[in-house]
Design goal:
Elements (H helix, E strand, L loop, with lengths): L4 H13 L8 H18 L11 H9 L7 E8 L5 E7 L4 E7 L7 H14 L6 H10 E6 L4 H6 L20 H13 L3 E7 L4 E3 L8 E4 L11 H20 L4 E3 L9 H7 L3 E7 L9 H20 L8 H5 L3 E3 L1 E13 L2 E15 L6 E11 L5 E7 L3 E5 L1 E3 L3 H5 L3 H6 L2 E5 L6 H4 L5 E3 L17 E5 L5 E5 L2 E4 L19
Parallel strand pairs: 3-4, 3-5, 5-9, 7-8, 11-14, 16-17, 17-18
Antiparallel strand pairs: 1-2, 2-4, 6-10, 7-9, 11-12, 12-13, 15-19, 19-20, 20-21
Helix pairs in contact: 1-2, 2-10, 4-10, 8-10
């Protein structure tokens, strides 16, 4: 790995300022975090390119660190289906810190970030040795990098027993829950980081900005009391929020602090660990959450520095309370002011789409299924893409039926131009071939339903009165046909989807 010395000179200067540890200024802390943020590009684990990885991928990466003396890992135990659950240890200090990721199997962002952290710790570049030595001497860090490998295997929230591990802190019915409780009981961490992904559809309060990151210092009782332990979690969150605001102003929310007596975060807070929940939400155009991954890397390393130096103690609690609560008001696409004729009357509706994600084996490793998630007056809702249909005429996409041989020769762009949203086929194309196509494929004519109703995925065509401008909305995509949004489909035929 090759580095440029001049890049690290500011980094070394900041480390020298941190040498006194106690009482460093906020500017110093943010400058330090910015250096870490910029350094991520050099240590990013390139073998994790997308969010649909599995336990075997993490195990392979961990084995590459077996020869290093500063990083230790072991198998804690096994999941319901017998997959190993690992624990990583770095440091020999007297401040124990725990981090656990992927308690929910389809929430992988922080797992990517902690694997990036391992590369950072393993890097032998001399310009980093002083900082790593400081952390190593002051903190004992324990990381469980994938608590729910069975859920990760099939990209679902719950484990193989269909138990939500984050609601199993009391009964401990699942082996994965038992292992986490064992770690907490044995190391008694001063700080605990409960690392998750949240819904893409949260906004950072009552604004049209996705909550790309959300924080919480979980309550440990119904009164939401604040003792020293919870207050320290709030103080550290104040610092982490300031880091994120440097890169994504206004994109931070606060997760609901309603006490949940079954949840691990609430109970670990109750058991005396300053517990911090970090949730990765959406960032427009970043399906695999690399922006959030980099932010996690930055926040977690900066948090370790703050814990080692006790700099979080200078923060007040009011800025924590000022972080707006998450507000679930987002959608992937909203069509506004759509006029429908129902029994002779004109009904004006806003129509919103959201998606489900399914993992598939072939690249791009995912398949998205869109559906109408809300309709009516959505004036308080926000869409990543918004289309104003006022002044446009609505019509429904059509079903294309033809002889199989003729169908195979048809051009995708031409099909869309002719107003077809669905194609009747003898067999379905592979999902990886049709991912991202603005068409839907059916085996049976009876399955064709382009009604605008909740849960359906209708194709919508909008034509502007008086000219030939047309907008095509299908499968969660918005295409302006007058602007050649389908130019990339002009050389693609139905036959190409079956190669």
């Amino acid at each position: 790995m090759t580095f440029k010395i001049y890049y690290f000179l500011p980094f070394v200067f900041i480390l020298m300022m941190f040498d006194t540890l106690d009482g460093q200024s906020n500017d110093q802390f943010l400058s330090f975090a910015d250096s870490i943020h910029n350094h991520w590009h050099y240590v990013k684990e390139e073998k994790l390119q997308h969010k649909f990885f599995r336990e075997k991928d993490i195990t392979t990466l961990l084995k590459s660190y077996e020869s290093l003396s500063m990083i230790h890992f072991d198998t804690l135990g096994f999941s319901v289906e017998g997959r190993p659950i690992h624990i990583i240890k770095f440091g020999q200090g007297d401040i124990p810190v725990a981090m656990w990721t992927q308690m929910h199997g389809n929430e992988p962002t922080a797992t990517m970030a902690v694997m990036d952290m391992l590369r950072f710790f393993a890097d032998d570049d001399p310009f980093l040795s002083e900082w790593k030595s400081n952390i190593y001497q002051r903190i004992s860090l324990y990381i469980i990098p994938m608590l729910n490998p069975d859920g990760a295997e099939v990209f679902k929230r719950r484990n193989a027993l269909d138990i939500d591990l984050n609601r199993d802190a009391l009964r401990l019915e699942s082996p994965e829950s038992q292992l986490l409780k064992m770690v907490i009981d044995s190391i008694r961490p001063r700080f605990g980081f409960n690392l998750h992904d949240q819904s893409d559809y949260y906004t950072a309060g009552d604004v049209d900005i996705p909550a790309t990151i959300a924080f919480l210092a979980p309550a440990y009782d119904e009164d939401k009391s604040i003792n020293d332990s919870r207050a320290n979690a709030m103080r550290l969150i104040v610092q982490l929020n300031e880091i994120v605001q440097q890169y994504l102003p206004g994109a931070v929310g606060r997760f609901s602090d309603t006490f949940e007596p079954r949840a691990f975060g609430d109970n670990i807070q109750k058991w005396g660990t300053s517990t911090i929940l970090i949730e990765s939400g959406a960032y427009k155009g970043d399906l695999h959450k690399q922006t959030q991954r980099q932010l996690h890397f930055t926040m977690l390393l900066a948090a370790l520095q703050s814990i080692a130096s006790k700099s979080y103690l200078i923060e007040g609690l009011r800025p924590y309370e000022d972080i707006p609560y998450n507000n679930r008001r987002g959608h992937d696409l909203i069509v506004r002011n759509l006029d429908l004729i129902v029994s002779g009357d004109t009904i004006r509706l806003d129509v919103a789409y959201q998606k489900d994600e399914v993992r598939i084996e072939q690249p791009p490793h995912y398949f998205q299924r869109f559906f109408i998630s809300d309709m009516g007056d959505l004036s308080t809702m926000y869409g990543f893409i918004e289309v104003d249909a006022e002044g446009w005429t609505y019509s429904s996409g059509k079903l294309l039926k033809d002889k199989w041989k003729s169908l195979l020769d048809m051009n995708i762009a031409a099909i869309i131009q002719q107003g077809y949203s669905h194609v009747l086929v003898k067999r379905l194309p592979p999902e990886h071939k049709i991912q991202g196509l603005p068409l839907q494929f059916l085996l049976h004519e009876r399955d064709f339903n382009n009604d605008i109703k909740m849960g359906l995925n209708p194709g919508i065509i909008l034509t502007h009165d008086g000219d030939n401008r047309r907008v095509f909305i299908n499968n969660g995509q918005f295409l302006n046909l007058a602007e050649d949004d389908i130019q990339h489909l002009e050389k693609l035929t139905i036959a190409d989807l079956f190669d």
